[in-house]
Amino acid sequence: MTQRFMRATGKLRIIFGPAHSSSLDHEMTEENKRLLVRRQAEAQQWETVRRPDGSTYVVPKNPDDKSLR
Q: Which of 16, 32, 14 is nearest to 24 (CA)?
């Protein structure tokens, strides 16, 4: 089954070309740096709570803050 999948995707790559890939060691652009800072600040507003059954959910760190609800 795996070999059939690889043959099928190989045929698709012939038609559509290879997937775009870039190196991971390039410098970040200023726009990406600003976006990263903003995303990190947003992530710090939340905390993950784990239930006894092992499932998790996120809640705001400040329960009085209704700005994102």
A: 32
Cross-strand bridge partners of residue 50 = 56
Q: How many domains is the chain built from? A: 1
- Domain limits for position 53: 31-61
| Angle of CA points 63, 64, 69, to nearest 5° | 80
Tokens of 55: 């499932």
The dihedrals phi and psi of 48, each to the nearest 5 degrees, come to -95, 130
With 0.70 as the threshold, say if the pTM is over it. no
* Residue-level pLDDT at 21: 61
- Using alpha carbons only, give the angle 68, 60, 66 rounded to the nearest 5 degrees: 35
Structure confidence by residue, pLDDT tens digits, 9-62: 777 777 777 666 666 677 889 999 999 999 998 888 888 899 999 999 888 887
